[in-house]
Amino acid sequence: MTPHNTETPNTGTPNTGTKHIFITAGGSGIGLAMAKAFLDTGAQVAITDSNSDMLAAAKAAHPALHIFTADATSEEQMQTAFDTVMNMWGGLDVMMANAGIAGPTASIEDVKLDDWQRCLAVNLDGSFLAAKLATPVMKAQKSGVITLTSSTAGQWGYPYRSPYAAAKWGIIGLMKTLAMELGSSGIRVNAICPGSVEGERMDGVIVREAAARGITPEELRQGYADCASLRRFVTAEDVADMAVFLASPQARSITGMTMSVDGHTEKVTL
C-alpha cells in the first residue's frame, strides 16, 4: 500500500492536504457537519451511522457521500464497512471517531448500570474500534490522522452526567496514549472537545437536566451560555472547522492535544 498524502509544511488558507476521510456517526449533527466541511475541500468522504434514515437523508443532500449503516460498537459491522471503503480507496488519510450518545441525566445513585454501560460503549468503545481499524492502514502508509470527539465534559466533569463525563474523559486518555504509540509511524492523534453545541441533542439534554435540577429549560440554557466566556453556544460547523484544521498540513506538528471548541469554559456549574 502506498503512502497517502505525506504531510509537508504549508502556509496560507488551511486545506486538508488529504483525500480520503472516514467519519463515524456522520448521519447528523457534528458528524454530518464534518462530512460537509471535508466535502467542501474536495475530499472523498465515507460516513457510518446506526440510523439508516439519517444516512439516506445525508446522501440525498450530498450525493458524493459514501454511506454505510453500522453500529459504532459492533466490531463486525464496523469491520465490514471499513473493509468496503478500503477496497474502494486503498488507503485512508483521516479517521474521525465521532460516535457518541448523551447517556442518562441523573444523580449517580439513580443511574442504571445498563445505561452507564451503553453510554461508555458508544462513546469510548466506538472510539477504540475506529482507531483500531484505522491504525494498521495508516502504519503501512506511514501517515494518517486520527481525531476523536471528546467533550469539555472530558476535561471538567459534568454534574448529573457521570456516564458521559467518564466516557469522554476516557477518550482523552485513549487519545494521549495513541499519540505516544503512533507518532513514530507518522500518525497524528488529537481530540476535539466541544462545549455546548446548538442542536436537537443539546435541546434534549437541557430538558432532562432542567427536570433533574428543578429549574426551567430556559434558565438552564442561559446558565450554559453563561458558563462560557463568549456567553453563547457553539455550532456543529465550529467543531467541523477544527476537524478540517487538524487534518490539514497546517497542523502537521499538532498531536496528543485536546482542542476545545467551547467559547472558553469558565465553569461547569450554574
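The record above closes out task 2.4. Task 2.5 opens with a second protein, given below.
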Amino acid sequence: MIDLKRNSKKELVPAKGLRSRKSSIYAPGQTDDFKISRGKFSDFLTCQRCFYLDRVKGLVSPGTPGWTLNETTDHLLKKEFDECRLKQIPHRLFIENGLENLVPFQHQDLDRWRDSLHQGLMCRFNDTNIILTGGVDDIWQNTDDGRLVVVDYKSQANTKPLTPEPYLADPYHDGYRVQMDFYAFLLQEMGFEVAETSYFLVCNANRNADGFFGKMEFSEILIPYRWEPGWIPERASEMIKLMNQHDLPEGNPSCVNCVSAKERATIESRH
C-alpha cells in the first residue's frame, strides 16, 4: 500500500523520511527517560533491524490506515462495559459464561490506561531509563479475591469454529499473546494483583448471513488465556542493550520491509 502524507487539514504535504521530534528518537547512552510502547516492543521481537532504524535512527516506517470498523467495535464495547462499571454489576457476557464474580474494574486512572496514544499502563523497567507503556482495552475485577483480569477486544470475520485452542495456536495470533503478557506484566509492576487467566473478547462477524440489510451480525466469544510474562524481562533487557549499541543489527530474514528496502535500493542503483 502506498502511503501519502497529509496534514491536519487533510492536505497533501511533502513526506519526511526521518522523524523531526527528538523525544521519539533514542540516542545510545542517553540517560533521559524514554518510552517504549507495547507496539514498539513487538516490533523489536519481530525485526530488530526495523526497530533500531525506527527508535534509534528515527526512520519513519510506512503507515497503515486505522481499521475503522474494529475501532468502532471497541468503542461500543467500552460504552457497554462502562455502564456496568458505573453500577458495579456483572456484564451480560459474564453471566452467560458463568463468571458472575467478575465486574468491570473501576479506577480513577482507567481512561488514561486505555489511552494507547498518549498514556496507557506505565512502569519503569528495573533501574533503567526505559519506561514501558501499553494501552489496555479493558480490565475486569474478580470480586472474590480482588485480583484484576486483563481483557483485549478482537474483531474478525471467520467462518471456522471459534474455540480457545486453535485460536491461541494460530501463528497470526502470536502478537495477541504478547499483548496480553505485556499488559499483565505492566499491571504487576504497577503493584496490582493480576488473575492468572485473562480473556480475549472476540467479536466474530457472520459471513454466512443472507445479506447485509443495513447491519452486521456478530457473535461474542470469550477466549481464556493464561498469560506468561516471565520471558519479558530478558527480552526487554536485550532490547535496551540493542538501543545502546551503535552498530546496525541484522534483520529478520522473513521481514518484508527489510527485503523490499534492499531490493528497491538495488534497482535504483542501476538507474
